[in-house]
What does this fold into?
Amino acid sequence: MLEVKNATKKFGELTAVNDLSFEVSQGQVFGIAGPNGAGKSTLYNLITGLYPFEGSILFNKKEIRGFAPHAIAKMGISRTFQIPQTFPSLTVEKSIGVGNHFGSQEGYDPSYVDNILEFVSLEDKRDELTGQLNLLDKKMLMIGAALATKPQILMLDEPMAGSNAKEILALMDLIKRINKDMGITIIIIEHFMKVLTELTQKLLIIETGTEICCGDPVEVTNDPRVIECYLGDVNDKN
Ligand SMILES: Nc1ncnc2c1ncn2[C@@H]1O[C@H](COP(=O)(O)OP(=O)(O)O)[C@@H](O)[C@H]1O
Ligand SMILES: [Mg+2]
It folds into this structure.
């Protein structure tokens, strides 16, 4: 469904994404992990059309390199950001409505917005301003707004960051339901290996923009090269 082929992104002297190739199949939950600064968010920025790059990215066999972010969103690729991005002066319902209005090919559909509000457990807070939501609800809202665009692929960037154990369980449950009940393919960047081994069917590890290994999540997390690059990260937190 998504084929990244020899993607390379340089910022001046720095190679943030270095000749990465991988394939995500329809219906899969595909994980991406690696130390801070590995190039994970940059890779999302390439897929979603924010930066020019070398290489090729095919979505449903069609080249999407060179398309603008809104065009790629309309094709069916939606994402969330590492730091929750919401419109603080809009209500929860309107925020999801904005995603539906601008992202969905079929245009605004109030009953679909209601479905999403229920799906992300925010129906009771539909009239609250998003700026007043707690962190978990902000994350739920950001995922809801992404879902409102009716994506084929949802890309999540460290959705569990800053969450406690209970919130992590709620987010994992939501991600499983998005994949199973809505049939949406998911790419997830995450640091928590337990989350990745439970949620994903395939896991890609990158370090300094380069693939370390890619495959079955349990095998990958036990790979000595992966353990080594994570031990390096413990001494290198920023
Ligand atoms: N817009 C940018 N301009 C210059 N350097 C950038 C830019 N975005 C990211 N980088 C650099 O690229 C590298 C990868 O960053 P990033 O993709 O955010 O890593 P990760 O998400 O894996 O923590 C880092 O060294 C970062 O400083
Ligand atoms: Mg990042």
